[in-house]
Amino acid sequence: MSTTRRQFLHTALAASAGAVLAAPGSAIEPIQRNGKTYVRLSIAAYSYRKYLDLKIKPKPPMTLDDFIDVAAGMDLPAVELTAYYFPETSPEYLSRLKGKCTRLGLDISGTAVGNSFTSPDAAKLKDQIASVKKWTEHSSLLGAKTMRIFAGNKDANDSEEKARERCVAAIQECCDHAAKFGVILALENHGGIVEGIDQMLAVVKAVKHDWFGVNWDSGNFHSDDPYADLAKLAPYAVTAQIKTEIKRKGKPAEEADLKRKIDMLKAVNYRGYVALEYEAAEEPKTAIPRYVETMKKLIG
What we know:
This protein has ten helices and ten strands. It has 300 residues and is an alpha/beta fold. It has one domain (36-299): TIM Barrel (Alpha-Beta Barrel). β8 (245-246) and β9 (254-255) form a beta hairpin. α5 (122-142) runs parallel beside α6. The longest helix has 21 residues, at 122-142. The two termini are 35 Å apart.
């Protein structure tokens, strides 16, 4: 029996970054995962944004090298590297970071690039697509399995339907490119035209590509019942992020039920990385190690 597209996506996640699939598939469906759930912990560089910000003068107090050392010191298996904190993207620099991670026993679970695919300005949209394509190549050189991408906000004079059409077409084009480099593009549920679960699924289900999935961000739905929304999105996840807080509509942020979040992923037999993305008010260098230990126990 031939392998189904969802079985292939599962295989691709476990395969090396060199695997290539050029042709797009049918509309995305919940991933059929073989074997029992297997969750691995990572840490997002964004968690240390107050130290990594390249705009800090004369220089940031933390570099990506420092971040990698910190992750290894917490006995983590992987890191997620965010585009915002790369001082350069030369092949030599990217290869050096990859080599450092390898020597420390760390995978690069994924990368992330800031983008918007909703602009009605053709030139601006073309630039955004080019940026995502270029970062797909960077991610491949780093050995990342996935790269987080975003949808964007609609312009004031635009309709959400038209913005969504442009976004879907842009994702499709970028996935064609990503297929050549073995990187799965993961759309994050991050405001704008994917603010709510129905909006998010409208985009996700419209994309027709084997090299596409969802970055399941557990803190970005702000509805009356964010947990219910997250449960609906979990079957489409190819990578995931755990935030330590959750925010319901019209209410202040509250401490999240981390066990409930992890259990949602396990319930859909999720097999992949979960990156801790810390955004709460407590000092990151104090809070993150504590949450890392909590996450290790919950993942088991």
